[in-house]
Give the backbone structure.
Amino acid sequence: MRTPREELQQLEEAALRRQLRTIEAIEGTEICENGSWYTNFGSNDYLGLSQHPLVKEAFERGVQEWGVGAGASRLVTGSLGAHDQLETWLAEAKGSEAALSFANGYSTALGVVSGLVGKEDVVILDKLCHASLIDGARLSGAKIRVFGHNRIDQLETILTQVAAKRCAAQRVLVLTESVFSMDGDYARLEDIVALKERYEFVLMVDEAHGVGVLGHKGLGLVEQLGLSESVDIQMGTLGKAAGVAGGYICASRDYIDLFTNRARSLIYSSAPPPAQALAALAALRLMSSDAGAERREALWENIACFKDHAQLNKVPSSAIIPWHVGESTQALELQDKLKTSGFFCPAIRYPTVPRNTARLRITITSQHSGEAIQAFAQKLLTLRAEERDED
């Protein structure tokens, strides 16, 4: 029987072993690790709301009003007024009949996907969908079909094949992210919605990296494209641009009631802390306000600033910018060289991305200074030039 040490050694040899890093302090966009400070270009806190005074005040108020924990699962006594306030706001903002919140994004995807489809159903998903969506599909037991990233022609081919063999009760679920977490590009939502006119399926969109960044009110790509009525289930997280923690879905009342009865990650987990829900609500309200719009404007100005100083061909589509390297060892070396210059930016490797596509995952926030962005971009270009000279 193989030992854990043998498996770890194999990961080490392939440059795929992960280790937790302890961040000892955070000050704005600066983080402290092992006593050293770095400018952080790896955070999903795109609008800097995790440290906003109003969000912190809401969390503290929630602790005073409700205590630090919910005390039970949502279906026992853990469904508290704080959760209801958050869900009511989400449903109204998203233009849906109802909403349901979870402890985090991963448990949201797992519970919703596995609660919606079963072994008699079909899940069709974009090849670059997040691991949580893939794991939810696998857990469901449904037949899984995958189409190439943003290949609408392949999606339609699969839909045609499924339709030819489909029985009346079979449910077909199409899954996609709105902004893809490792590449930062958009799903072709308008084209997918157009297919709904010819094929019957449920469309679920994960707005994890769209909320806060896109849309007039910061509600994501679905809002920006005016597709709220065409997307059956909108999923999102509250630990990225909202700066807190948690996950949610917005859908019809029937879907929400179904998930309340079928989503095992909701039924068999303690409810999220009520203070978390109230802090997330404060962040969402701020995000959709004029102050949130100002932070979004600053974010896009910073994205354009990075584009200019990093000599990119075009302005990135989102706050996520992949800096492609190729081999895992090279990505780790680049990460380490940046740290010696005072920057933290994570190396992303297989299985998070396909083999031989290792990269730095650069994230820009509204709180980065122009000087920090310029210095970071120039260091990246310098390291790239040095690597080419060595070749």
In short: The chain has a mean pLDDT of 96.
